[in-house]
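Sequence, please.
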């Protein structure tokens, strides 16, 4: 019988081994306290911090580590020198269970991602006039 997917973050945390759950709870608590404008929710069945429609950070648990992703290879690359002994890929950091939370690192990663999202948002001057789409042109039907 297939396992049911978690309905919320608490359901996700309840499935984890205690040492992973404690570390992830600490990370989520820090994010919620430090960045109250962010919404913590499940996306793709794992916890995410979002702002509007933008993903700021994603977190998930594996067998022997937690994964933290700032949803930006550029943000992670800019912080590579601050990761110390943490294992990483171009897209995520592997956090061991029981990790002593590096608040300045997490704060910096999230602030950098928020700045990246803000820079990508169109300003009022860049928005197209009402009814004028800057999307792809419509395809003309082919003759039969």
């Amino acid at each position: 019988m297939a396992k049911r997917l978690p309905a919320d973050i608490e359901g996700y945390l309840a499935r984890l081994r205690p040492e992973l759950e404690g570390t992830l709870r600490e990370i989520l608590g820090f994010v919620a306290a430090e960045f109250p404008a962010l919404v913590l929710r499940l996306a793709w069945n794992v916890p995410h911090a979002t702002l509007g429609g933008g993903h700021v950070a994603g977190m998930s648990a594996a067998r022997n580590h937690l994964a933290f992703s700032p949803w930006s290879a550029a943000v992670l690359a800019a912080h590579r020198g601050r990761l110390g002994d943490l294992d990483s890929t171009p897209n995520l950091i592997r956090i061991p269970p029981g990790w002593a939370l590096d608040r300045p690192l997490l704060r910096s990663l999230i602030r950098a991602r928020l700045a990246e999202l803000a820079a990508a948002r169109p300003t009022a001057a860049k928005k197209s006039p009402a009814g004028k789409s800057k999307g792809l042109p419509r395809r003309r039907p082919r003759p039969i």
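The two ends are 50 Å apart (CA to CA).
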